[in-house]
Amino acid sequence: MAASKLKLSLTVTVLVVAAVTTTLVIQHQAQAKLRAEIQSLRAQMARLLAENQSLSNRGVPAKKAREQRLPAPPIPLGARTSAVLEELPATNLYARFGKEPPKLTPEQVEAYLKENGRKAASLLAAYRTSGDPALLKEAMQNYGNDPQVAFEAVFKGDLTSDERRQWLSTFKQTAPANALANYLSACDYLKAGQTDQAVQDLMAASGKPQFQDYTLDRRQDDEEAYLAAGYSVAAAKMIGSSEVKLPQLAELKQLGLQMVDLSNSYRQAGDAASAQAVLQMAVGLGQSYGAGDCAISHAVGLVIERNALSAMDPNSPYGANGQSVQDRLNQVIEQKSALTAFFKQNETVLATLSDSDWISYIDRDKSYGEEAALQWAVRKYRRK
């Protein structure tokens, strides 16, 4: 069995945070403590940006760790990482409201399609807002070369394994710069025990600059469908956001765990360099997804990165400033705790928003990210 070395191009993408300065009017000690935590988190993220940029520029010292051998060792059946799995929040953006968003009727959907045409984006929005699978099927038949159609088709529940593989291949072909297509394909290959093909996808993903899950486009299209059906602007914005499911969350979190298992298999086979390379790619996956606009994407990215760092030698160097893997792991754990606390402590603010402020909140969410939007709401409503 020939073992050929393939160079990995590790793309380290850092977390992007909203540049909105928090100027909370503090009335209670708990609020003061929260402000200090958030400010500390943002300072740490700024330092991480500089450190990761330095690491990505170091190329030569990291070369050995980026080499990986094929064929890849099989992952033992039923292999599981020892990392603790938190339950994911519901995979829609506003499941906190406690009820399913209303679905459009067939009459409303047809009126929307008559006005907007039966193009790919319109059919997908009509499918998501009505739940009618025939509309997704129509999009798959008529727009098979559209990457958003391929993305939506990958998660169609009644596909056979061969059909899903075909749509994963279509997604990769129609979005060649999008690393997400390769990550989802790698996850599918690892589930099937096809580790060589999974490694090829992971290496391809690590060299791509784009990570696009189409969440903002999908939210906007769904919002327009509700507006066309006669909903108010505030209702259309809120429902359009709550309607969009994020099935990629669970897939990517699973992939992060699978990569830890794959790293363990390399290590057991005596290939420490490949084991380390896989963990570095898992860190890159976590940072890439954590840079998304949704707070849940940020949280899942931190979990993926934490699991990968936990599998590394804690005393090994990380970055260019004398930091260790354990140092970075501690930062990730602190950031995840601060993010969770921030939303838990301020979630009740959302229940007090007026219709006009819901419009502002969701517009800010789409432009600057969910964390920045909630900071704006907290600043405004804590004064009242």
What does this structure look like?
- The chain has 384 residues and is mainly α.
- The chain has a domain at 92-175 and 212-245.
- The protein is 63% helix and 2% strand.
- The chain contains 16 helices and two strands.
- The chain has helices spanning 29-57, 106-116, 120-130, 133-142, 147-154, 161-174, 179-191, 195-206, 215-228, 233-243, 248-268, 272-290, 295-310, 325-350, 355-368, 370-381; strands spanning 4-7, 67-70.
- It has a two-stranded antiparallel ribbon.
- Helix 4 packs across helix 5, helix 7 packs antiparallel against helix 8 (195-206) and helix 11 (248-268) runs parallel beside helix 13.
- It is flat.
- The termini are far apart.
- 41% of the residues are buried.
- Mean pLDDT is 79; it is low at 1-67 and 81-98.
Summarize, please.
The protein has a domain at 92-175 and 212-245. Helix content is 63%, strand content 2%.
